[in-house]
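[agent] plan:
  1. take the single chain provided in the ticket
  2. run structure prediction with default settings
  3. attach structure tokens to the ticket
  4. add a short note for the reviewer (M.T.)
[agent] executing step 1
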Amino acid sequence: MSARVRSLPVVLLIIALAASAPGFAAGRAPDADRDTVQLDELTWTELRDRIAGGQTSVIVPIGGTEQSGPAIALGKHNQRVRILSDRIARTLGNTLVAPVLAYVPEGRIDPPTGHMRFPGTITIPENAFEAVLESTARSLRHAGFRDILFLGDHGGYQAALKTIAERLNREWAGSPARAHAIEQYYRATETTYVQALKRRGFRDDEIGVHAGLADTALTQALDPALVRTERLASVKPGTDGVAGDPHRADAELGKLGVDAVIAESVAAVRQALVRR
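[agent] step 2 finished; step 3 output follows
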């Protein structure tokens, strides 16, 4: 009998022992959860230990559930802010990410205004939005976080994030906790990203402000499943909730926006933490 055949039972035993180890059946290595920065993927004891170990900053990602034309899924803002917040947190270090706030002010229901004219958009009153965000921040402070970072993927509530952060900081005066509205997260999509697209020859009316080339390409770069590429050619600019022309959008163009958002958000957070 060859040495190779004699060693087979040993190999089988090793495989059997590995298969009985926690996490093997699920396709996850033991302790794989330790790589996550998502707060809701941790147990409370794991979170306690992370905070005690110095992970005292937390991003509160704010999205929104709204129409983005016939070619982009309603959850665009929620998925984008989750993915980008994860990358920003990993770049910063010592930072975790809270669950995405998916319900935000989107206008009146009766009579419908703005995006509420299209099925699927979900709105809440502004005072409810502010109350939820404030209570979220207070909960995170209570857990031991020192810096609560608001990152908003939607333009409609940017001013509110700053107002809420200022209100919380007045309340927390004298304590080590601070709230920060990181405006550069959204501003980068209106400035640096747009300028990069213009340098490549795209016009303002093509770049657009909602569901146009910039918006569509950014979404393709982060989660291509959210964009119905087969419908882009039939999108009519200026109609069906579209402000811009997404016909030439692709993930490569969107990466310009991804890089800008991450770089400028990280720089803004670091500056805010120095000033705290």
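[agent] step 4 note for reviewer: The radius of gyration is 22 Å.
[agent] ticket updated
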